[in-house]
Amino acid sequence: MNQSVEVINQLIRSRRSIFPPDYIEKEIPREVIEAILENANFAPTHRLTQPWRFTIFRGAGLAKLADFLGETYRSQTPAESFTTTKFEGLRSKVLKSSCVLAINMELHPEKIPEWEELAAVACAVENMWLTATALDVGAYWSTPGNLPALSDFLGLGEHQKCVGLFYMGYHTAKEKPAIRKPIEEKLTWVEA
Questions:
Q1: Which of 127, 151, 175, 179 matches a 20 to 30 Å C-alpha distance to 78?
Q2: Mind listing the pLDDT tens digit for each residue in 89-116?
Q3: CATH number at residue 153
């Protein structure tokens, strides 16, 4: 097997969601974040719409995002359902991260359906995730329940929407094996 295939196989098969409780207090340099984002830019895209957009929260920007998520949860949750644990958890995930990217999507309804734009954005995120893995940066994609409010907070326009948050940080997480059913259970061959 050629070396490039071995490298990509290893990256794909070792990529995992690594969560903020495993992050350490070590800043991800801007050039590392830019390298991760540069690879996002090479995702496949139908009609070259390149729908991925990112809002990067670092430094004091993390506190702004944490405040927004916490206060949105507080304002949108009935008093009998509100828990301090969830409120603090939302804030803590952001504040333990070195960087959080809002994953945004630019829609082109006159050209292609929304699901194709979302597929392209998901491919961009996978490119980021694989690059982060190669750089020993932990990451995971989370989709909070308040996406419309998050889109407003981000100042997104009419044909834009937020589809989640991508948390990143250097980490101390131990390697975990992938849990996957055999590919043979997911295939249908048509050869005649």
A1: 151
A2: 999 999 999 999 999 999 999 999 999 9
A3: 3.40.109.10
- Please count the structural domains in the chain: 1
Asked whether residue 55 is marked as a ligand-binding residue, the answer is: no
Helix (H, G, I), strand (E, B) or coil at 192: coil
Per-residue pLDDT of 68-78, as tens digits, reads: 999 999 999 99
Instruction: For residues 161 and 159, give the distance between their C-alpha atoms in angstroms, rounded to a whole number.
Output: 7
141 is in an annotated binding site: yes
Q: Is 189 annotated as a binding residue?
A: no
Domain annotation covers residue 192: no
Q: What is the pTM of this model?
A: 0.95
